[in-house]
Amino acid sequence: MAATAPSAPTAPRITAVDTYDIRFPTSRELDGSDAMNPDPDYSAAYVVLRTDAGDGHEGHGFTFTIGRGNDVQVAAIDALRSQVLGRPADELCADPGTLSRDLTGDSQLRWLGPEKGVMHMAIGAVVNAVWDLAAKRAAKPLWQLLAEAEPEWLVSQVDFRYIADALTRDEALGLLVRGRQGAAERTALLREHGYPAYTTSPGWLGYGDEKLTRLARQAVADGFTQIKLKVGADLADDLRRIRVARAAVGDTIRIAIDANQRWNVDEAIEWTRALAPFDPYWIEEPTSPDDVLGHARIRAAVAPVRVATGEHVHNRIVFKQLLQAGAIDVLQIDAARVGGVNENLAILLLAAKFGIPVCPHAGGVGLCELVQHLSMFDYIALTGTTENRVIEYVDHLHQHFLTPVAVRDGRYTAPVAPGFSAAMRPESIAEFRYPDGTYWAAELEPRTQEPRTEEPRTKQKGAAA
Amino acid sequence: MAATAPSAPTAPRITAVDTYDIRFPTSRELDGSDAMNPDPDYSAAYVVLRTDAGDGHEGHGFTFTIGRGNDVQVAAIDALRSQVLGRPADELCADPGTLSRDLTGDSQLRWLGPEKGVMHMAIGAVVNAVWDLAAKRAAKPLWQLLAEAEPEWLVSQVDFRYIADALTRDEALGLLVRGRQGAAERTALLREHGYPAYTTSPGWLGYGDEKLTRLARQAVADGFTQIKLKVGADLADDLRRIRVARAAVGDTIRIAIDANQRWNVDEAIEWTRALAPFDPYWIEEPTSPDDVLGHARIRAAVAPVRVATGEHVHNRIVFKQLLQAGAIDVLQIDAARVGGVNENLAILLLAAKFGIPVCPHAGGVGLCELVQHLSMFDYIALTGTTENRVIEYVDHLHQHFLTPVAVRDGRYTAPVAPGFSAAMRPESIAEFRYPDGTYWAAELEPRTQEPRTEEPRTKQKGAAA
């Protein structure tokens, strides 16, 4: 499985694939609560690639999880170690696609998916770490590396297996060649104005009406033109909350609603129609992310409310079908759910071919940091537009990253630091590594003797600001 | 998450959830080789539930894998342990559906799927182990326990979330009530004649023409009316091999072909059409198991060759769509890919509603042992027929099971031993536990000093008979 292209024996190689189980105790504050996820502890199965190049560069990547099972995700990344160790760093960074194909095509690991779930997300973490390393070595933020890349090379990074019936290599190449026109102007615009964002911070299901109103107004004051509400647990509550939100933000601000897969197809249709008088901009994850045909039925039934999904769509093959079936109005990529940058390139190309806007899922741990690069590439070098495109923004856990996102006036500022913005602060890793980081060691120790306290603790507030 | 129904403090409970990483060195003989899986080491992430009932009964279950990553699968089962330990055994066995829903609905673990990949297969292993325990405690083979169960209770074991648009609870109940008519007669017929099988043993891609001819003729002599060939690596080879196989078995024996997901949609159509003159009965896994719309296109294009898939279809939601889209002629459940017996009940009910025959995937490690119970239930108490229905049979690794399948005259004999036929022999576990079983300890030790031998060893032959 090792790359076979020749490389000098002394060329730098990958010398370590180190993994970390990082967990933040977010469940204490109901940040991130929704109809399906009442008490998440936002976590990351985190991986660091090290080389013997002596240049100080490392590749960082991770899978986002919400707590239990983060150790399984770490074990899955560990299972990839032997296929990454020893690869020449120059070749790996010049062609992450080969590693991507080797890992997704590994005949034995493939059985555990194929291309879905724990094993596929592990591949995504490792592949994203390679892109982080490649961008650091190129001294460019990843969006810039991608936006300046030759179309031929970009196409070589895409696996067309199982999507060639919807998008051929030549069509993809054509989209990228066309996308370059005006790229320099758009790069300048991006650096000056950033990329539009929307915020989910006001709308978590665990928040009361007063907090919802206050945060929704704050969002508008902060320059956001779209907010999002979690819905799906109780229709009467949802009707009240969307009324409260609409009253807080007025008629010109878009309110997206998000059911987090709570409904069956028919429920989704009824519930969305009931909320339609408050003009929701899109209904997100109305049902199972696997249900292409269900989304198509929902979309036909709830128009003009748009249908959005993608954060749990497990690979390019399902996205292909959502597009082929006319099942979605908004495609929501996630930077760490699929097989990494390479598969997301395929998905961005599919969306461009079908003319469907991409509005990435973010939040979690570091997902905003990652996905901004993909949208910025899409704007500069593929679709050339930000019209009806917004990146999700949630204002928590950014303080744990070395180069956190900067959102100003409702827009993501273009990153300037080389890399994929994936690196966590060493002191955060030392504190929140599970179960032996300083936070968890202190937290888990007394719990065996005394009942769990009801009071949120200062430390937790700090963790989930 | 623990069951909340009252239970006497002294009632028996689950006291252990023990896991084992079992690997058989099948890659040495090319048993199981196909276009996507050239060198599988057939493996099982194996789980044993123990109670303090003092009746000696244990619940056994497993996920089948093909080698690397089996440890990840074991870690996933381990992640479920805390939700199973301490549950009252009586309640658990009287209602496995509650555990099934608790595990698939666990908000944090759900993020790792949802309902797909490593985490979902782990749930399937645990849920199947509960059914094994339940059937042993009821002193019935599982097929009989299911076939004698009340329709109302069976329906209570099914999760209709995300499938209610295709199959309501009332429709399912109606199918089961109708299915009971004549069940006693069919039970007698099953006990006397068994259930039809087909064999894949002749058709592995790694076998030469002489071995293919010999094994294909043997299959006919053994009473099989259908064999299967692996295809998809090289069209010229496939044309030669299907010609050889057709010459060996004559015109009346069905030859299924299996591409193991090797092709894109258009390739699948071209390749299948090229093989069509040799009258293949079905083309199995022509493309990605995720591609509902792709299978629909292939089916329309290759008729009268039937389209079959399912062994890698990850849950009932994808099966629902394959049926809704008219994408398949043959539905291939797998006993250990989805969330266990409960989800397979849902899938059998969906297939019955849509009138599509179920021909299970089997082979691997213990998959024949498990899935026979589901087909026999389907025959006796749901569809009432074996017409155009066959269970896959592969003749290897059965000697490792305490109650191995018995296939005579091309038919599975109805199991009589209580349980789900899932229990592996203790001496096989002791030998093939990885990496510390006696086989692997001896195998892995010298490999660090000397190069790997080319000769198959006596021990390996025994393992993969």
Automatic annotation (TrEMBL), chains A, B:
Is Magnesium one of the keywords?
Answer: yes
Which cofactors? Mg(2+)
Reactions accelerated catalytically:
L-fuconate = 2-dehydro-3-deoxy-L-fuconate + H2O
* Metal-binding in keyword set: yes
Q: Which domain of life is it from?
A: Bacteria
Q: Which CDD domains match?
A: rTSbeta_L-fuconate_dehydratase (cd03324)
Region Disordered, annotated ranges:
443-465
Q: Where is the composition biased (Basic and acidic residues)?
A: 444-458
Going by the record, the broad EC class of this enzyme is lyase
Q: Name one Pfam family in it.
A: MR_MLE_N
Q: Which UniProt keywords apply?
A: Lyase, Magnesium, Metal-binding
Annotated InterPro entries: Enolase-like_C_sf (IPR036849), Enolase-like_N (IPR029017), Enolase_C-like (IPR029065), L-fuconate_dehydratase (IPR034610), Mandel_Rmase/mucon_lact_enz_CS (IPR018110), Mandelate_racemase_C (IPR013342), Mandelate_racemase_N_dom (IPR013341), RHMD-like (IPR046945)
Residues of the Mandelate racemase/muconate lactonizing enzyme C-terminal domain: 209-305
Q: What is its EC number?
A: 4.2.1.68
**Which SMART domains does this chain map to?**
MR_MLE
Family matches, as PANTHER family: ENOLASE SUPERFAMILY, MANDELATE RACEMASE (PTHR13794), MITOCHONDRIAL ENOLASE SUPERFAMILY MEMBER 1 (PTHR13794:SF58)
- Specify the protein name: L-fuconate dehydratase
Its lineage reads: Bacteria, Bacillati, Actinomycetota, Actinomycetes, Kitasatosporales
